[in-house]
Amino acid sequence: KKSFGSEPGKSGSPGRDGEPGAMGPPGLKGQSGSPGIGIPGKPGENGAPGDTGPVGSPGVTGQKGEPGAKGPTGYTGATGPMGPTGAQGPRGFQGERGATGEKGVPGTPMSAFTVSILTPYPPSGTPIKFDHIVYNSDHHYDPETGLFTCQVPGIYYFSYSMHVNGANALVALYKNSDPVMFTYDEYNKGFLDQMSGSVVLHLNEQDTVYVQVPDDEANGVFAADNVHCSFSGFLITN
After folding, report:
1. Distance set, CA 76 to CA 53, 73, 79, 80 (Å)
2. What is the mean pLDDT of the chain?
3. Quick one: which H or E segment has residue 233?
4. Which CATH number does 112-237 carry?
5. How far apart are CA 90 and CA 63, in angstroms?
6. What is the pLDDT of residue 106?
7. How remote is the C-alpha of 70 from its chain's centroid?
8. Tell me, what's the pLDDT at 1?
9. Contact, 214 vs 124, CB < 8 A?
10. CB under 8 Å to 114, separation ≥6 — which residues?
């Protein structure tokens, strides 16, 4: 028979792990830890643009701003419609004399006159000096002599008109020194008579035409301020 002493025996081999126990209740929140001691990282790259948001409601109208700086000169606009005619401006200074123009086409020669007397009983035996000029622009009639002198050869028409008072009257129209036409009026006492004559003549240059009382026995030719005796002539054709 084997006996056992009083000393403990040697430890046995460890046993197998037991099954995990049930989860215990959550522990209390721990305090924040101290900041890390590492170097801060670089900023990240910009993210992609987001989608366009919805249109917002109109804002409140702001106060009028200060005028901006003058902008650059714009392009010339289209020509507008013509405005109304303005008031006439002051007369300008006289310009310089222009160059002589080309010689024009020769004009048609003219010759015409009308003259009269306002005083009665002109001297007989000499051309009547019709000294009141109505028209004599070419000066072919000379009031100092009573003669019309032809400057433009051609066919002419002449006429004269006389008033008669106080005596009989005989009047003749002469070409050069030759009588061409006579007119006679036998005076009626108490009346103011009138007589006239006309003729067509062909004249050459320097031919003369005039009216004359041939003699003093029949010189009742009367004229006054409102009773005129006249002598006229004009070129018909040359």
Report:
1. 42, 9, 9, 11
2. 89
3. strand 229-237
4. 2.60.120.40
5. 51
6. 77
7. 37
8. 47
9. yes
10. 134, 135, 136, 230, 231, 232
How many other C-beta atoms lie within 10 A of the C-beta of residue 112? 16
Contacts of 144 (CB under 8 A, 6+ apart): 129
| Residue 65 CA from chain centroid, whole number | 46
CA distance 55 to 6: 97
How is residue 124 annotated by DSSP? S
Q: How far is CA 171 from the centre of its chain?
A: 59
| CB neighbours of residue 220 within 10 Å | 22
Residue 208 belongs to what H/E stretch? strand 208-212
> Does 4 score more than 80 pLDDT?
no
The answer on pLDDT for 157 being more than 90 is yes
**For residue 33, what are its two tokens?**
């830890």
pLDDT tens digit sequence for 15-60: 777 777 778 787 787 777 676 676 777 887 888 888 888 887 887 8
